Amino acid sequence: MADDAIRLSVVIPLYNEEENVPELLRRLDETLATIQGPVELVLVDDGSRDRTVEQVRAFEPRSMSIVLVELARNAGQHNAILAGFSQCRGQYVVTLDADLQNPPEEIPRVLEQLEAGYAVVGTVRRDRNDPLPRRLASRVVNKLVSRATGHDLHDYGCMLRGYSRETVQAMLACPERHTFIPALAMAVAGSSTEIEVSHAPRAAGQSKYDLGRLLRLNFDLMMGFTSIPLELVSCVGLVTALLGLVFSVFLIVRRIVHGPEVEGVFTLFAILFFFIGVQILALGLVGEYIARMYDEIRGRPRYLVRRVYRNGGRRPPPGVPAEGED
Ligand code: UDP
Ligand code: MG
What we know:
The protein has helices at 21-32, 52-58, 77-87, 107-115, 132-149, 165-172, 181-188, 211-225, 228-258, 265-298, and strands at 8-14, 39-45, 65-71, 92-95, 120-126, 161-164, 192-198, 305-309. The chain is an alpha/beta fold.
């Protein structure tokens, strides 16, 4: 689907971002005007219930063409990006968030690295403007995913990233439903580099990730790309079994020397409750893997396209079907 005429596609997922769209498009239009060659902006509306789509359609760009992909329902940030990938035609592709946390002004620097021949350009957020618990959790996840993908990147969570056409095609060929684009890219990419980019607080509106969605996303990342959670549980099991063995030997020796012990029943209960907890946790974790496998096996489409508008959606071009698509 690469169209040599289009040099750069910028892909952005939008979910209830009406407050950010006008400013986002204005800044993009200004920045992309400085880039040589035709540029296309691919905006994916991920089932927004506010005026996001109307805001996009009202915008008159100067320097870029706009493709608006409307999804029939909310498919999640990463699936929305994949929907955008399947519609974009640029030789190079850059993704970013719509809330202006990733400044659009950084796009030319990412493009520069893609032109230097890297298959993936990762980014590290300088002075990341997110709450401390999220930053700490990200640090652990980054370490684990780096180990799993074999690419030592420092910030898998930053969505301002660049991909070569080949990398985008390789990602589109992966059928998984639960995915995490930056990690998926590293799983298929040959070469990569990393640059520092600035990071702002969300311009308007609220994060689309409450604690539940954030946990699910990080589970997707950990379970989709590593088996570390299972290995950890196995290690806990092994250590527990060894401790249990040592404790049994101690009790046998104690019984021989001092006779049977009758006290300490409640301590035993406490210990038992702890291990029952660990067992249920392990069972839940295995269940999470199984649920994801079941979801993948069912093979339902990861997103449903309601409509694709080229030229910013002001004029639906003839012959563009409103088809559902995998
Ligand atoms: N987003 C999306 N679908 C979703 C959730 C988020 O398309 O189900 C988009 C959202 O509009 C934004 C980007 O993904 O452009 C990142 O979302 P957000 O800023 O809420 O995430 P955070 O910065 O809190 O990680
Ligand atoms: Mg954000």
